[in-house]
Design brief:
TIM Barrel; 8-stranded parallel β-barrel; 11 helices; 29% helix; 9-stranded mixed β-sheet; Lyase, Ornithine Decarboxylase, Chain A, domain 1
Length: 432
């Protein structure tokens, strides 16, 4: 399996077993149980440093790197990310509260979402976040009323829908004309939103935002979308002092997937912004770059214990593990593909075409179809890499499953980011 699917600290012990950050994964599984999720500090630190270096080299004005909390957020994880001097994009009341408790500065926080509640907007107003990202004309009016009642002025961006489609799963395309997100350029709502915001006594419009989607590898759509946003701003006589072209840069999940070199993404975004602002004689904006999945996906590894193995009537060989749909719904939702290896024999050649099945009562609970594995037996540990984004954040208690423990591994030091649930600590417990 290609090394760039695993954390940068991954290696082998003297017996050839997989280890991460110097830890014996068998010992971790024995202590914390499986399923078990591991986050490698060195990988996240590497990604943050790489992106910061690229922006320093490509953009001569202020910029900020903002983590998308929806990729994975807990109080423990949030504290680690805040310590890396990152900003954060949040979409719910709980994410706001966790970001505040973790030590994020309000001027590094942006509240997104297509249907923000009064509670969420009020929290953001009181805390004084850098931007409430307004998603519709109705929300703009609602926010104005809340700000007027609170006797404050809301600092806002407008989320613009440019009508740009990207090559990714349709469920994670977010900037096409039929998207539920944002103010459409084509329908005239975006222009109307700028005019209304600029004339308002209760909001201050400082920037524009767009998000094209998730898990794509082409840089050109960024150029097209940024150009459309700035053409719109120019027509309306608005000079954005902050610009957020979103994130979405993809990562490889399998041996066959493309590499995820971020240079084309960063260089295209920076060059497009610089050229567009210079052409109009505008002062360069603060550039906000959001690398949620790209920041943490590779850092995460999911560990499972193998249980039943059997062959179906059509010849499919099933390897069942003790997790699945409840901790990782991505294969069921997006037909997401993964690779896997055995912890004790990570370099053993695959000889058996296997389907990794979860334990939940759904036929669609299959983590990987047709992966080549060596012969396995009950009790073997299976590692699935690139597990750091959009798995735990979408985890559930389906079948009353307990959500797994989550560990932060940092060069021989371990922190528990999230404790394993039990029947007594899970939200379903009805005992006294």
């Amino acid at each position: 399996m290609r090394p760039d699917l695993f954390p940068v600290s991954a290696g082998r012990d003297q017996a050839g077993r997989l280890q991460i950050a110097g830890f014996d994964l068998r010992d971790l599984a024995a202590q914390f149980g499986t399923p078990l999720y591991l986050y490698d500090a060195a990988t996240i630190q590497h990604q943050a440093g790489l992106l910061s270096g690229l922006l320093n080299a490509s953009y001569p004005a202020a910029f900020d790197i903002t983590y998308a909390a929806k990729a994975y957020f807990s109080l423990g994880m949030a504290r680690k990310l805040a310590a890396l001097n990152l900003g954060v994009d949040v979409v719910s009341l709980s994410e706001l509260a966790v970001a505040q408790a973790a030590g994020f500065s309000a001027d590094r926080v942006h509240l997104h979402g297509n249907n923000k509640s009064a509670e969420e907007l009020t929290f953001a107003l009181k805390w004084g976040v850098q931007a409430i990202v307004v998603d519709s004309l109705e929300e703009l009016s609602f926010l104005e009323s809340l700000a007027a009642r609170a006797g404050t002025r809301a600092r806002i961006w407008l989320r613009i829908t440019p009508g740009v489609s990207v090559d990714t799963h349709r469920y994670v395309q977010t900037a096409h004309h039929a998207s539920k997100f944002g103010l459409s350029i084509a329908g005239g709502q975006a222009a109307q939103g700028i005019r209304r915001a600029l004339a308002s006594q209760h909001v201050t419009l400082t920037g524009l935002h767009t998000h094209l989607g998730s898990q794509f590898f082409q840089a050109e759509p960024y150029r097209e979308a940024i150009g459309m946003l700035l053409d719109l701003a120019g027509r309306e006589g608005f000079i954005p002092e902050e610009l957020s072209p979103g994130g979405g840069w993809g990562v490889p999940y399998t041996d066959q997937a493309d590499a995820n070199d971020p240079h084309p993404w960063v260089e295209t975004v920076c060059k497009t912004v610089i050229e567009a602002y210079n052409r109009r004689g505008w002062r360069l904006p603060k550039l906000l770059v959001e690398p949620g999945r790209w920041m943490v996906a590779r850092a995460g590894v999911a560990l499972y214990t193998i249980g039943t193995t059997k062959q179906a009537g059509d010849g499919t060989f099933f390897v069942a593990v003790d997790g699945g749909l409840a901790d990782n719904p991505r294969p069921a939702l997006y037909q997401a593909q993964y690779s896997a290896c055995l912890v004790e024999r990570p370099d053993a050649p695959g000889t058996v075409k296997s389907t990794i099945a979860g334990k939940f009562c759904e036929s669609g609970d299959q983590l990987i179809e047709g992966v080549m594995l060596p012969e396995v037996e009950r009790g073997d540990l299976l590692a699935i890499p690139v597990g750091g984004a959009y798995q735990l954040s979408m985890a559930s208690n389906y079948n009353l499953a307990a959500r797994p423990a989550v560990l932060w591994l940092d060069a021989g030091h371990l922190d528990v980011l999230q404790k394993r649930e039990t029947p007594h600590t899970g939200g379903w417990w009805m005992g006294d």
